[in-house]
């Protein structure tokens, strides 16, 4: 009987399958043995080996390199094997990070569940790593494993939030911010890599294979996988404005006005769901501020500007003194100079093209600004501000309606009220070489500058 969390894909040899099952069962055994540290491991542990392995540099352009779907057989297999070359080390590094948490934290059932999820995902990938994906049938099975991986980790953020909430007496908030910032950025990359191949897989299936013989869903020609090569921020702003406005009408009975100016036809290559999540969070804060300050008649101004790509002004210099001028084992070399606790360079994407497009969006509101006492904490994962009673109410659907709009990205509803909105938005922006800067005039209003880095012309 296979160990819990162990899946043996059909069509592969039993030897490699047994190896991954032994990995899974041995580590699960450690978790379930009270007399041992729940994440004890030996010198020859496969997870430790993978976590310590050197990672190839990754660019957003790499995710686009297989071209527009439908892909040929050879290109689809190349995409599958490229995906397989990236994921195991990333999953293993997250397992290692969870093992290194304090004993009382990793013993928490919510944190332990996340550990088990990562272990399950790694165990399903190991058989494929032992032998390359060589046929369309194996590629199909591999896509099923990726779909399971994406589904398994869909609720990682709220589950971890609950775990750290319950352990807040036993771990310093700075350590929580440091762990979450690194972990959630790593999750962005892992999920993007998996979803990119899944999108290419489904878009490359013949009509008689997809959807039981029905034509496959049409994908806009400007999409390559999950990346929109002609994304227009102005269009995303309008979508988010409609959504946030409806929630404001539901909660407050009023709907602030929003005015868009600047280069409204600007376009670049980016991931739409990430941009939508960031803009929804920023607009939510602006709408709420103007309403609660009584200035809802004052329009929220959104200005869009493309940044000229001038020599010597790159925010993503691939060689940074912070990392010793080396990028041999990192995914990125950008220098992110932010608050204590941000992710290391291994969890961001590096840009190698000198023509990558940068777009800045300024969101200006007359909502009274941010209190000086609050400003130092806006980038922290404020898990201590949400009580267990509030958490229970959110599970029953009684959470603040305006906070709940953070779920527009699909899997964020249960972190409403946890203070995860801004730091998670910054993680999404910085992962792709962008940034978020906040300038507040207390008693007047707030300007938020969102800079997003694209990949240039595709």
UniProtKB/TrEMBL annotation:
It comes from the Eukaryota. Residues 270-456 form the Histidine kinase/HSP90-like ATPase domain. It is an enzyme of class 2 (transferase). One of its GO terms (biological process) is regulation of glucose metabolic process. The lineage of its organism: Eukaryota, Fungi, Dikarya, Ascomycota, Pezizomycotina. InterPro entries: AK/P_DHK_N_sf, BCDHK/PDK_N, BCKD/PDK, HATPase_C_sf, HATPase_dom. It is found in: Mitochondrion matrix. This is Protein-serine/threonine kinase. SMART domains: HATPase_c (SM00387). Belongs to the PDK/BCKDK protein kinase family. Its main location: mitochondrion. One of its GO terms (molecular function) is pyruvate dehydrogenase (acetyl-transferring) kinase activity. Keywords: ATP-binding, Kinase, Mitochondrion, Nucleotide-binding, Phosphoprotein, Transferase. Residues 306-332 are annotated as: Disordered. One of its GO terms (cellular component) is mitochondrial matrix. Its EC number is 2.7.11.-.
